[in-house]
Design goal:
Blueprint (H helix, E strand, L loop, with lengths): L2 E3 L11 E4 L2 E10 L2 E6 H14 L6 E2 L2 E4 L4 H6 L9 E6 L14 E5 L2 E2 L5 E4 L3 E4 L1 H5 L6 E8 L2 E8 L1 E2 L16 E3 L2 E5 L16 E6 L14 E6 L2 E2 L3 H9 L5 E6 L4 E5 H15 L13
Length: 297
């Protein structure tokens, strides 16, 4: 989504035009020491057209797959690629993607819309340049048909997929949207921050973080557990932030148990925690126990 440049990009330059040969080639994005990054013009145009057509940006399309390079001759032979074939091995498919149920693990992706994919995941871009194959997909409009050529068990297949954006496992920070959150008895829960290479095991899965423990009688001894991943609530695996809210609010036992990463555990009296929540919200100036996207449950 970005281009690296040696042009100096300083504080305050972000959002300004980047020129090359008297032509605007992108928008200044960020810079560090002698390295700068710009968002190229095609990406900017794609974003603007998406907003104009949908009143909001629908996101960049993705196949939702993780792949492995096929530069090793022995590996290509194992997956029955001929000497003239090039492509990449599919390791995992995001269950939230339009590829799920069509592509399979150990398929070899050979081409997208007739454009061959190199053994290193690149496709030809302009005359002597190459770019990651994901660029071809990300520039498509949601539900646009994409033709994939795949090698499966030594036989080639073609699949037409209506490509769509994919919901990330870990929520990405968006400056024009308020974050999702849920507060119970001084425990502040958020979707986690982005990490590379994360794909959910099933649709709707989300990593939930105990972002902060607000000081109160109900949270004594738990403040060191800030920024811990939530695993279970009362023995039930947490699927996403909405599911966590449901598990907490439907608690029918005297004690609420929350299991975190590194085998840490929180025990809070459910009724006392529920009574304490409004007082904690008022004390810390929090307007609601949850963000608007959770209130519709």
């Amino acid at each position: 989504m970005t281009i690296q440049t040696d042009a100096a990009i300083n504080h305050g330059n972000s959002g300004g035009p980047a020129f090359m040969d008297n032509k605007v080639v992108g928008v200044a994005f960020q810079g560090y020491k002698n390295t700068g990054y710009i968002i190229p013009t095609p990406v900017v145009k794609h974003f603007i057209s998406g907003v104009e057509e949908n009143d909001q940006f629908p996101g960049f399309c993705s196949l939702g797959i993780l792949c492995q390079h096929m530069q090793n001759a022995r590996m290509r032979n194992y997956f029955k690629m001929t000497s003239k074939m090039i492509g990449i091995l599919i390791k995992r498919i995001n269950p939230s993607s339009s590829s799920y149920g069509i592509l399979k693990k150990d398929d070899v992706l050979l081409s997208i819309d007739g454009v061959s994919i190199g053994n290193d995941e690149t496709v030809v871009f302009r005359k002597t340049e190459s770019i990651n194959f994901s660029h071809l997909v990300s520039m498509k409009k949601p539900c646009e048909t994409t033709t994939l050529k795949v090698l499966r068990d030594g036989k080639t297949h073609e699949f037409n997929i209506n490509i769509t954006p994919v919901e990330p496992l870990i929520q990405v920070c968006q400056f024009d949207k308020l974050p999702s959150y849920y507060v119970f008895a001084g425990l502040v829960f958020l979707p986690s921050t982005p990490q590379p290479g994360t794909i959910p095991k099933k649709a709707g899965e989300q990593i939930v973080l105990l972002s902060q423990v607000l000081e109160d009688e109900t949270t004594v001894g738990y403040t060191f557990l800030n920024n811990s991943r939530v695993k279970k609530v009362n023995g039930v695996q947490v699927e996403n932030l909405k599911h966590l809210r449901q598990l907490i609010e439907k608690c029918c036992t005297g004690d609420l148990r929350i299991d975190l990463e590194n085998d840490n555990t929180i025990i809070i009296g459910y009724k006392s925690g529920k009574r304490a929540t409004p007082k904690i919200l008022k004390r810390y100036g929090i307007p609601s126990t949850m963000s608007k996207d959770l209130q519709s449950l």
